Amino acid sequence: MTETQPAPTLLKDYQPFPFTPTQVDLTFRLKPKASRVLSKIRFTPNPARSGRHDLFLNGEKLKLLWVAIDGQKLDAGALHVTDEGLTIAASQLPDGPFLWEAEVEIDPEGNTALEGLYMSGGIYCTQCEAEGFRKITYYPDRPDVMAPFRVRIESNMPVLLSNGNPVASGPGWAEWDDPWPKPAYLFALVAGDLVNLPDTFTTRSGRKVDLNIWVRKGDLDRCGYAMDSLKRSMTWDEDAYGREYDLDVFNIVAVDDFNMGAMENKGLNIFNSKLVLASPETATDLDYERIEGVIAHEYFHNWTGNRITCRDWFQLCLKEGLTVFRDQQFTSDMRSGPVKRIDDVLTLRARQFREDMGPLSHPVRPDSYIEINNFYTATIYEKGAEVIGMLRSLVGTDGYRRALDLYFDRHDGHAATIEDWLKVFEDATGRDLTQFKRWYTDAGTPRLSVLEAWSDGTYTLTFRQETAPTPGQDEKPPRVIPIAVGLLNPNGDEVLPTTILEMTEKMQSFRFEGLASRPVPSILRGFSAPVVLDRKVDQAERAFLLAHDTDPFNKWEAGRTLARDVLIQMILTGDEPSLRLVSAFETVLLDESLDPAFRALCLRLPSADDLAQSLKDGGHIPDPERIHSETLRLARTIAERLQKPLATVFTNLSDDGRFRNTVARRS
Ligand code: SER
Ligand code: ZN
Question: Which DSSP category does 304 fall into?
Answer without folding.
Answer: B
